[in-house]
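Work Package 3 committed the consortium to producing structural models of liganded targets before the mid-term review. Because experimental data for this complex are still outstanding, the team generated a predictive model from sequence and the ligand definition alone, so that downstream docking and mutagenesis planning could proceed in parallel. The input record is reproduced below exactly as it was submitted to the modelling pipeline, together with the SMILES string for nicotinamide-adenine-dinucleotide.
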Amino acid sequence: MRIALIGCGHIGTVHAYSLSQLHRAELVNASLHTLFDHDVARAEKIARHHGGTVCDTLERALDDADVAWITTWTDGHLRAVRAAVERQLPVFCEKPLAPTYAGCVEVASLLHAVPHQVGLVLRWSPVFEAIADAVASGRYGAPQAAILRDDQYFPIQGMYGSTWRGDVERAGGGTLIEHSIHDIDVLRWVLGDPARISGHTTERFGHAGIEDIATVTMTYDNGAQASLVSVWHQILSRGSGRRLEVFCEEAYLHTADDYLGPLTIETSESSVEVLGSMPSWADQLAVPEVYEKAVAHYASANKAFLDGLEAVGGPQMGRPAVDDALAAHRIVDLAYRSAAAGGAPMEW
Ligand SMILES: NC(=O)c1ccc[n+]([C@@H]2O[C@H](COP(=O)([O-])OP(=O)(O)OC[C@H]3O[C@@H](n4cnc5c(N)ncnc54)[C@H](O)[C@@H]3O)[C@@H](O)[C@H]2O)c1
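The resulting structure, written out as tokens with the ligand in place, is given here.
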């Protein structure tokens, strides 16, 4: 399969790296073929390191491809998705789907027409999968409460080096939509759809409409409660960090790492640590140790999508598909509405 990569910045490079590694190790039957970015130098850099031919328009890049990876900044997703779907190409679309909820609905209605996957890659984290499975199994009783803390330095600097994250028209908002859409998706994966949502947001760093602190509280029909605290700070030495704690009636599950864990499960009888495993094929990638986990994480999502396109019996939908992404966006939208109304609860 010939892959078109649309958007050749930070995450486009991460995808290009993981896709070229998968191809090199003959783990997928697909390779980077065409590249497009408004900033030609960025596309050229990816071509030099990971392959592919730089195209001068979006349309040319898509015309000569079998599958599209859409990794532009958020307000570029709609146009690129539309152009790919018009060509009936399967689409891997990065999160957030669009800056506004109406835009997300539009992207979702386009994606329904083709095999697709959304870049909510925490669905490919063994540690969150273990938590979601443990809660769904019911073996620890009903879930009571979840607390998710997510922090990251304000990502217009450092390895992100982007200015669009300070522009509400392009990003749609700050830490809640841009970063914690992942967290909302994880909480929904573990606990299901909430019944009520309240939010509070604060802008500390002077970018209008770009909140750098967001808290979201969700309550569920079964009485469970969840809270998310999402912070963009200025501690440049800190990597992005997540800490998730889930209380079930008969167990306390917690992790401070968002990929392999370990996950600690404490019950009346014992406290057990479970460490997630890298994919069995990860040792076939030729990646410096420092990048091993990050590349394996994105490669898992990318490989699964490509494998699904070649599945016996016809292409399968990726994980997560757009309906899960749209549900997470609906929660984010309701949290923003609640914040604008002083924290008033919004019904799901
Ligand atoms: N899944 C994840 O973990 C993850 C991580 C980081 C970023 N993202 C998402 O990926 C997207 C890109 O983020 P980034 O960090 O790579 O940003 P970035 O600024 O590093 O790169 C974006 C690139 O897209 C290009 N671009 C913008 N609009 C375009 C258009 N219409 N057509 C072609 N190229 C266009 C820009 O020139 C830039 O090179 C955002 O939506 C972001 O939220 C997802």
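Reviewers should note the following from the model. DSSP finds eleven helices and 15 strands in the chain. These observations will guide the Year 2 experiments.
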